[in-house]
Amino acid sequence: MSVMSLALLFLLQQIQPKSQWQVPFFPVQQAAINDENKMFFATGSELYLYDFAGELIERRAVETVPEWAFSTQLQQFCLVDRHRLICFDQNLQMVWSRQIEPLIEQPFRFRSRIALPFKRSITLMNPADGQIDRALFLEGGIEKVHTLGSLMLVSGLDGQNRFWDEALTPWHIAAQDRLEASSIVFIERGPDQSIAVAYANRSIQLIRPNWKSMWQRQFVVDVALRPVWLGSAHKPVLAVATHARDVRFYNIKGRELWRVNLSDRPSSMVLMNPHTLAVTHQELSDVVWILPEAQQTHRVKRDTHLTHVLQNQGHVIFIGYDGIISSYEKVLHDSPEVTP
User: Fold this and answer.
1) Alpha-carbon gap, residue 338 to 242, rounded angstroms
2) For residue range 198-236, what is the model confidence (pLDDT) as tens digits?
3) What CA–CA distance (Å, rounded) separates 28 from 325?
4) 72 has which bridge partners?
5) Is 171 exposed, middle or buried (0-12, 13-18, 19+ CB in 10 A)?
C-alpha cells in the first residue's frame, strides 16, 4: 500500500468519534471540560455535569446568565455570570463567588492561579478561595492577553507588547525589542521552540528560540485563529488560518507547502495528532480533517453547525447546535504505526 493510501486510511480512522450522545438542552450556552474528563454545561436555569461517555453525573437548578465557562487547576468549574465569577466543585456545589468588573476576554489558567483580563489590569486569583493574589496595571489600557509557557504577554492599547515574567515582577519591556511594534493577535510556540506571532497589522512572524526573527509574511486579510504547529522538532510545519477562507501550511523556512480552501470562515483549528488538523466553520456544519504531509482532506457532514469546540490534554469535544456531543481522542506524539 502506498504512503498516500496509508495516510488516507489513518485519516479515516481518526474521524470516528470515541463517543457520541445528545444532551436534552440545546443550543448549549456555555460549556467547559476539566483534566479529569468531566464536562460542565450551563443553560441559564440549570447546571449539568457529564462524563465523556454521556452519562449524567450531576444536575442542579441554578439561575445564571452564563457568559464564559472554564475549569481551574483544581478541576473545579467557574462561570462568569455578568458581574460575578462563581466557582463550583465537581458536585456542582458553589465553592465561592465574587463580584468582578467587566472582562475584556475569557479568564484562563496561569500557572497556579486564575488570570482575569480587565480593561487596565491583569488580576491573578487563587482558585481555592477566589482571593486576589496580585495584579499588574497598564494605565493606557489592555488590548489582548496571551500566555507563552510560564510567561504572560500583554498587548497594550499603546501598541507596545510587554512580558510578565516567571517571578511575577513588574512589567518587563524586553518584548518591545523582540517583537514588532504592533498588537499581537495570536502567539504559539512550536515543537522546535520557534515562536509564530500573528500581529494586528495582518502579518505573521517566525522567531527562533534565541528571539532572532527568521521570516515574516504579510497577508491581505486577518489571521483568523491561533496558528497551529504540526510535525516534530526535526520537521515542524506551521498551519495558519485566515479570513480568506483558507488554511496555509509553511515549513520552518517560510516556504508555503500547501493551501486548503474552505467553504466558510474557520471557527476553530484543532491539532488531533502531529500530522492531522480538524477545522470547523462559523456557519457550515461540516468538519474538515486535514493531513498536510500527504495533502489529503476529508469532510465530515453534521446536521447542524458547531457552537463549541472544547479540548483538554487528551480529548476534543465538538458540540452541535442540536445538542449532539462528539468526543475524539488526541494523540500528540508520534507512533511508527500511524506516521504517514
Assistant:
1) 29
2) 999 999 999 998 889 999 999 999 999 999 999 999 999
3) 10
4) none
5) middle
Model pLDDT for residues 307-316, shown as the tens digit of each residue: 999 999 999 9
pTM above 0.85? yes
3-class SS string, 85-120: EEEECCCCCEEEEEECCCECCCCEEECCEEEEEECC
**Cell numbers describing residue 274:** 502531529
Q: Are 196 and 237 in contact (CB under 8 A)?
A: no
> Per the structure block, which three cell numbers stand in for 9?
486510511
Query: What pairing do the DSSP bridges indicate for beta strands 236-242 and 108-110?
Result: unpaired
Distance, CA of 48 to CA of 77 (rounded, Å): 11
- How far is Cα 138 from Cα 120, in angstroms, rounded to an integer? 5
Cα–Cα distances in Å, from 202 out to 16, 87, 146, 205, 223? 36, 37, 17, 10, 7
